[in-house]
Design a protein that fits this description.
- The protein is an alpha+beta fold.
- It is built from 2 helices and 3 strands, in the order αβββα.
- Strands 1-2-3 form a 3-stranded antiparallel sheet.
- A hairpin with a 2-residue loop joins β1 and β2.
- The longest helix is centred in the first third of the chain and has 46 residues.
Length: about 80
C-alpha cells in the first residue's frame, strides 16, 4: 500500500511540476513576443522614411518630440556637409 501511495505522489508531483513550468514559460514567451513586436514597430518607424540617393530621411518620435533623422553612410554624409 505504501508503494502505491509513493508512486501516486511521484506522478502527481511530476504533473504539477510540468504544469507549473508550462505556465511559467508560456507567460515568458508572451512577454518576449510583446518585446519583439514593440521593437519591430520602432524599427519600422526608424527605418522608414524617404530614400534620397544614398541618404534616408525619417521622422521619428523621441521623448515625445518629433525629430528628423538623417541616415546613411557616414562618408556620404560628411562629404555632403562640407
Amino acid at each position: 500500500m505504501d508503494l502505491k501511495i509513493t508512486i501516486l505522489a511521484a506522478i502527481l508531483s511530476a504533473v504539477f511540476t510540468f504544469a507549473g513550468a508550462y505556465y511559467h514559460y508560456s507567460n515568458e514567451l508572451a512577454k518576449q513576443q510583446t518585446v519583439v513586436e514593440s521593437a519591430q514597430v520602432k524599427e519600422a518607424a526608424f527605418c522608414g522614411g524617404y530614400q534620397l540617393g544614398k541618404i534616408r530621411i525619417s521622422e521619428i518620435t523621441c521623448n515625445g518630440k518629433q525629430e528628423l533623422c538623417i541616415c546613411g553612410d557616414p562618408s556620404t554624409l560628411k562629404r555632403g556637409l562640407k
